[in-house]
Amino acid sequence: MAANAYVSAPRKGDWIDIGDGFNYTEDFGWEDDGLRGHIFVDTENKTVVIGLKGTSLWFFDAPETTDNDRLNDNLFGSCCCGQGGQYSWKRA
């Protein structure tokens, strides 16, 4: 599920079939710059998993998301790393 968060088109390209138990239900954020991912629900509709696309450095991923990847990472993952320090840090 985590790897599939980086694939824009479900069941195509690098998409990995997760097998029985959960199904791909919906995606979000792929039409604009920002938070992106897919939603999976178990077969009994009791458990929902949201797979979020994480941070990608500009030279590893497409440029349309990398500007906001760092901001999203700082907002979701920590409060200290986004407060300045090294040249690669950006205030959240």
From TrEMBL:
It catalyses: a triacylglycerol + H2O = a diacylglycerol + a fatty acid + H(+). One of its GO terms (biological process) is piecemeal microautophagy of the nucleus. Keywords: Autophagy, Endosome, Glycoprotein, Hydrolase, Lipid degradation, Lipid metabolism, Membrane, Signal-anchor, Transmembrane, Transmembrane helix. It is an enzyme of class 3 (hydrolase). Its main location: membrane. It is found in: Endosome, Multivesicular body membrane; Prevacuolar compartment membrane. The keyword Transmembrane helix applies. GO terms for molecular function: phospholipase activity; triacylglycerol lipase activity. The keyword ATP-binding does not apply. It is a single-pass type II membrane protein. GO terms for cellular component: multivesicular body membrane; vacuolar lumen. Its EC number is 3.1.1.3. Binds to both phosphatidylinositol (PI) and phosphatidylinositol 3,5-bisphosphate (PIP2). Belongs to the AB hydrolase superfamily. Lipase family. PANTHER family: LIPASE ATG15-RELATED. This is triacylglycerol lipase.
